[in-house]
Amino acid sequence: MKFLSIATMALFVVMSASIHITDEGQIFSNGARRPVLNSNFRMSCLQNSIYDETEITDFAAKAYQELERSVSNLDRHKFDPFPNELLYAYHIGRSQMSTFGEYQHYIIINFVGNFFAGFSCYNTRNGWATTLCRFVEGTQFYSPASYRRLYLATLLRVALNLINMIHILVGPNRGFCSGY
Question: What is residue 112's DSSP assignment?
């Protein structure tokens, strides 16, 4: 019961701290699809900043390392195309535009470091606004079936890591039924 109370409280904190990103440009109008990070991948944030597969892979790895720390400064986000995912934003750069001034660029990852999309944030007269980065022609996307397989494989990897951590904490000779 105590665990359930703690889990409920943690969920409340997560939901209250989240920011919602919408897909106003209809980039994901064909459904929830994750881009494949391969040599065909390119992402354009406001046309003057283009990120390739290597850069995004490196940024996602750094973001995941940040998440693994016990105290992470990454902002939580809800993202329309993936309503059931708790996602995080990681700052990857900035650019200058004559219209609005400075834009901040971010990537969106999940709790295991999988890349979903990128967005830019800029200041307007009415406060902060966001716009999704666009995927350059030639970028490939996972099919819904392959995405489900990838997601299940990721969950399995996380479960195995948790089992391994429990094994390390409990120790090799102190199992649950070891007689004490």
Answer: T
Is the pLDDT higher at 59 or at 34? 59
- The residue behind tokens 């897909």 is 23
Question: Does the pLDDT at position 55 exceed 60?
Answer: yes
Burial of 50 (0-12, 13-18, 19+ CB in 10 A): middle
Q: Which tokens sit at 33? A: 């699809």
Cα-based angle 161, 86, 83 (whole degrees, multiple of 5): 130
How many C-beta neighbours within 10 Å does residue 21 have? 22
Please identify, in words, the CATH class of the domain defined by 17-142.
alpha beta
Q: How far is CA 32 from CA 15, 47, 83, 117, 141, in A?
A: 21, 23, 9, 11, 10
Residue type, 63: A
Work out the end-to-end distance of the chain between its first and last CA atoms, rounded to an integer number of angstroms: 24
Domain positions in the chain: 17-142, 144-175
**pTM assigned to the model:** 0.69
130/152 Cα distance (integer angstroms): 30
